[in-house]
Each structure stands twice: as structure tokens, then as C-alpha cells.
Amino acid sequence: MKRIGLTSLVFAALLFVGANTANAQGGIAIVDLNYIFDNYPKFKAATDQLKAEVEAASQMIQRRQDAIQAKAKQRDDTYKRNTLEWDQMNEQLTKELADIEADKQIMRRDFERKETKLYYTSYMEIIGEVNAFAQERQLTMVFRFNGDKVGDNPDSAEVQKFLNRAVLYYNPNIDITPIVLDKLNRRYQPQVGSGFQGPIRQQQ
Length: 204
What we know:
Layout: H1 5-11, E1 27-31, H2 33-39, H3 41-78, H4 84-136, E2 139-144, H5 156-163, H6 177-188
Parallel strand pairs: 1-2
């Protein structure tokens, strides 16, 4: 399933925190949302469950289509084309095919709504941790950035993505991605000692 446009729209926004600038210490931090989504077990588990639902629905639709094909073969083997019996059976099969297409559209919209809710809910969880940390440390602002590295032989799309990066340099100490991810995982897996912080990436 493709990621919906809402996700890109949300990711494109800056994350402004609710700190009082008059009392803030002037601190700025950055967070890699893509990295958190890719390494947050709760989000991954929910995504895998949604994918399983989509696959199960696809298999059910395929079985219905296979059944119609079998009926069509039976129609052709049993009746001559354009006879009353053939026309009646053909009309029924046409209706069944139309019902399948209608069900496919309904399921597609349902899964899109579920995916939208999944991304939005997870995004708000991340923002909640970002805001809490920023207010605790009296940060002025938190920016979204992308910490991915350029490969040895990047294609044109990859090069364009890095040419358009807003953050060209940052001190690794202001990257709060591991902290936010660890806090999320502590909430999701309280039985795990120190949680999961993920690897620390080097600057480019």
C-alpha cells in the first residue's frame, strides 16, 4: 500500500513547540521523523497488521473472481451462446462482477482511512514526546530533518532529495531523535529495561 499524501503533508511541516520564548534558553533541536517511523515497533506492528488485513481482503476478492470464472466456464460448457439460459447466467455473472468491483472500492476507501488514522495517531504520539522534551529543556524550536546518507552511486532522485535538504549542517548533540524514539518505546514496551534508542548516525 502506498503512503498517502497526508503523510507527506504532515512531514513537510515544522514542529513548533509550546515553550515561552521569553523564558527559553534559546535552544534548537532537530528530529528525524522518517527514522522514528521506520524504527518504532508499535507503528511497525500496526502497519504489519494493516498489511495482513489488505492481503486477506485481496485473497478473498481473488477467490470470488475465481469462482465467477469457474461459473463462466460452466455456462459456456453447458449452454450455447445467446440462448435464454446462457443470457440469464451471463446476466447473473455480470452482476456478481459489478458487486465485486463495488466491494473493492469500499475496502480500498476503508483501508485508506485506517492508514490515515495510523499515521496521524503515530505522528501525534511523536509530537507529544517532542513537545514534552522541548518544554522540559526549554527549547525554542524543534525542526524536522532527514538524517539519511547519500549512497556511493546515487541516482538523480536521491541527489535531488539531498540538494533540497533544509538542514545542511548540525551538531550531533542537538539531534533528539534517539531520545524521542527511546521515550516512545518505553511507553510501548515498559517491560524492556532501557528501551530502544537505535543507532547513532554520523553527519554527512
